[in-house]
Amino acid sequence: MKPHQKLHTSLLAGLIAIAASSYLSIAPAMAADAYPNKPITLVVPFSAGGPTDAVARLIAVPMGKDLGQTVIVENTVGAGGTIATTRVARAAPDGYILYLHHMGMATAPALYKKLPFDPMKDFEYIGQVVDVPMVLLGRKNFPANNFKELEAYIKVNKEKVTIANAGPGSVSQLCGLLLMSREGVELTTVPYKGTGPALTDLLGGQVDLLCDQTTQTVPYIKDNLVKAYGVTTLKRLPGLSNIPTLDEQGLKGFEVKAWHGLYAPKGTPPEVLAKINKALRVALNNPEVKARLGESNIEVVPMSKVTSESLKNQLDSEINKWGPVIRKAGAYAD
């Protein structure tokens, strides 16, 4: 090859390299500007009809309107939510796969000895969404009529008392573990595949106690079909103001909420995350969404919590809170 041909070839290769480099540098920005140009999937780790699914479907419509694309709720169930969490962790970080999960995101590291994901490293944090309060319930004919009587009864009859939950990693299980830890007793736990069948057996008198979310318990409480011993928030609930908190009844600092957060796979572009965060804020400020959530005492978090930093701090705090409780109880999942 002649010298001038070598020079020409070298210059051409250099120009191609520069062009490729320039394209690669602007490609993410172009993709973010075009986002979204197809439907978005919002993964929920629990079955349709449950509390988390209900929240997802309520926010999906207004989020989709703000983004200009349909947000499709997809239920990926199994293994206490770890199947869905793993799927999202391994998904393409392009903003087309989002994840709504409750506090189970924080308890998985202690519940499962081997996890294929790290909640603190494998996700982008979009923001907190809602808090769902819990109520400690007893079957209608349970001997204790109030929380003080319940405390006295379980200390004497702990071997006979049963407490139901929705399975490993469920908020109802964690609430029960915390109650037993604070009371210094071990009750017979009865796991179910969801709070629906657990509540059915409580109503039928097959189990004694259940800690469950307000989303499905309020009607039964108001119809006196169960005994309500206390709510698990630090303040009384507007719709259940006659039921005292466990905190005010002596279990200081007892607080269990099924807090929810919105996540995306690690590496999702910041510009895309900003658009999703804006859509989430629009949804949570929607009057109809607020009214529907309020009917079940579900609390929309303040807008100051609908941030990446707030969700990350919440997750870190809850991992540190629940890890010792779970390990002390030896409540490991398979």
TrEMBL record:
Gene3D superfamilies for the chain: Bordetella uptake gene, domain 1, Periplasmic binding protein-like II
Keyword Signal: yes
Domain of life: Bacteria
InterPro entries assigned: BUG, Bug_dom1
Secretion signal span: 1-31
Pfam families found in the cross-reference section: TctC (PF03401)
Keyword annotations of the record: Signal
Mitochondrion among keywords: no
Assigned protein family: Belongs to the UPF0065 (bug) family.
Protein name: Tripartite tricarboxylate transporter substrate binding protein BugD
Organism: Polynucleobacter paneuropaeus
